[in-house]
Amino acid sequence: MMIDAHIHLDHYEEHEQLLLLEQAEALIAVSSDLASCMKIHDLASVHPAVKPAYGFHPEQSIPSSSELETLFSWMEVHAGEMAAVGEVGLPYYKNLESPLNYQPYIELLERFMDFAAKWAKPIVLHAVYEDASIACDLLEKHGVAKAHFHWFKGDEMVVKRMIRNGYFISVTPDCVYEKEIQQLIRIYPLQQMMVETDGPWPFEGPFRSKRTEPWMMKHSIEKIAEIKKLSIEETMRILYNNTKKFYEI
Questions:
Q1: How far apart are CA 131 and CA 137, in angstroms?
Q2: Known binding-site positions for a divalent metal cation
Q3: pLDDT tens digits for 52-67?
Q4: Which residues bind a divalent metal cation 2 (predicted)?
Q5: How far apart are CA 15 and CA 244, in angstroms?
Q6: How many beta carbons lie within 10 A of that of residue 67, not counting itself?
Q7: Residues within the annotated binding site?
């Protein structure tokens, strides 16, 4: 009884996708660009367990105006089938490598937020550390209440703000070995939490050199249960229900 709240399903080979679908009741399959959106759309049309999220991953160069118009036009056509807008956000890691002009990324994120508000869809955010505060400002500005900060990392002040605003986070299998994520789990309410793989992103610790798959979330759930001092069964039930309710699946 698990749902992967964030996975790049189109980055797997077809035979791998079928294997992943056997390991979870549903997969929230996020997109990285228009081509990715189309692949996820095709997968969702064949596999009901694939719940599509359409968007543009921020850790890449901003598309041209015409490319963006094509993307948003396509999303308008397919808005009815979307579970969420995503993955969208801000380029924290790209900016670390080489400082960027953030304004175009902020403007694009605002456009995605307007889209989410118009269609009453949740939004899946890539916004960590300092970027999380910017994302919170924009969510409040655009009146988007259902926000999912995937694989979140950030300071205590922004964590408190996110909790107060009712935003959700999801944790990856790195919670098994990363002290920073374990501390976040201690602080964040279980009722506002989900689990994900962010597959095929690879992990360390007991998952080193293994293909990232939904079965790894069982280990995440065990760690969350340990930290929250709950049974594994109760923890799994709460996380499962959180995800079903958040994404209305």
A1: 10
A2: 6, 8, 87, 126, 150, 198
A3: 999 999 999 999 999 9
A4: 126, 150
A5: 26
A6: 13
A7: 6, 8, 87, 126, 150, 198
